[in-house]
Amino acid sequence: MKKVINFSKGFVPCAILSCVIIAFGIVGFFVKHINFGIDFKPGLIEEIRIAPVALDVTYNGNAKATIDFERDHVDVVISGTGAENQTKSFVYSSYPTVKEVSDALNTVDGVSSVVRADGDVSSYSLFVNSSVSTQLTKDAFRVYAKNLDTTIDEVRASLEGVKGISLKELGSGEKKSIQIRMAADSEEDSSATLQKVIFEKLGTTFGAEKIAVIKTDFIGSSFSKTLASKSAVLMLFTILLIWVYAAIRFHWDFALGSVIALIHDTLIMFTFIIWTQMEFTTTVLAAVLTIVGYSINATVVILDRARFNLKTVKVSTFNELLNTSLSDTLSRSIITTLTTMFAVLSLYIFTTGSIKDFALAMLVGLLSGAYSSIFISSGFISLFRKNWKPEFGIHHSEKAMKKGVLEMDGGVNV
Question: What b/e readout covers 37-60, taking b as 16+ CB neighbours within 10 angstroms?
Fold first, then answer.
């Protein structure tokens, strides 16, 4: 006979613990606020690196020349009227230093490359300013290598006095970059306007030619407001549909218990997001919605087992029924949660950026979902049915057996 675990002893303590955590999240909402990403907060997010210019590259030919620096090679593309279309590719493994890459570029007709920094620096450290056109002209196209030894505090000090600025360090070592977020004060603020403010401030401190923009994102205030409101409506609509589904499939108290578990998981995730100051983007929102679907799936399995046990298991209280149902589905809950966590943990370890945040939010949600399906949803259902008794003092399975005997006897009660 399978051992029945007395989960009902944990219903009240777990409810208290969850209330404390959620209250902690509410306090955090007013103290630290949600760290909204560019999707939900109007303004500019710009990733920069501060580095010396390694190469100055120019083109004096009659055709059109563009240059592209990739992770492990550089391409020079010559095209246009009067030129033979061609692509010259120089792989860093064959040209391991900046000096050697410069010499290789000088072999292309019309292209001139001058080393501006230490020529012995690894060619794999080369990068360019993404805000500048890659078309080569008679004006110097700047190529950078190896960051200056600049701290985030120095960058923050250089931007002192600029409103709505927040900074975040990304990466480490030679690949370190700094993410700068600047809020838009009005709808008139454009990406160019905000970028100009940042560039002038940093240029004054570090030198204009040493500022390289790696990536830039901008969102207007009207779009961010629309996205935020639609996301809230989407969340509420999702929970409403789940409640309707559960109410039709089970009973109103089962449905309410499952919805309470969903709201619990959402609040727990937001508590984690608020206190860790994880950037809340559409990717993190996708993680929250994924957990809503995952959590209701785990809860429905338990509720379905409880509904089945109502007809087959002899118990005297509803807590006994819940304990039996939870014990029946415990191994399934653990196995499905762990297997999903292994996949999500791989994403967290081997990815970066928004996908890493997605994986971290998912890990918290998976733990919360497994916990809420067992203790929170079941605890509230237990509260709603605290006065539940088997009908007429006879369990359904016994009634079913008696009904069968009566039918065999031709309907005569003996």
Answer: bbbbbbbbbbbbbbbbbbbbbbbe
Single-letter amino acid code for the residue at 183: A
Rounded Cα distance, 398 and 123, in Å? 81
- C-alpha dihedral over 60, 61, 66, 71, to 10 degrees? -70
Question: 81 with 255: CB under 8 angstroms?
Answer: no
pLDDT band at 397; cut points 50, 70, 90 = very low
Query: Rounded CA gap, 145 and 96, in Å?
Result: 13
SS3 65: strand
Helix (H) or strand (E) run with residue 287 in it: helix 282-312
315 vs 391: CA distance, rounded Å: 11
* Alpha-carbon gap, residue 342 to 348, rounded angstroms: 10
Q: What is the DSSP letter of 280?
A: B
Q: Alpha-carbon distance 28 to 30, whole Å?
A: 5
pLDDT tens readout for residues 232-287: 788 888 888 888 888 887 788 888 888 899 899 999 999 999 999 888 888 888 89
Handedness of CA 291, 296, 298, 299 (dihedral sign): positive
358, containing H or E segment: helix 353-371
Residue 187 CB burial class (10 angstroms; 0-12, 13-18, ≥19): exposed
Contact call for residues 68 and 130 (beta carbons, < 8 A): no
Which CA distances in Å does 359 have to 346, 354, 389? 9, 9, 44
- pTM comes to 0.61
Percentages of the chain per state (helix, strand, coil), in multiples of 5: 55, 20, 25
How many residues belong to the chain? 414
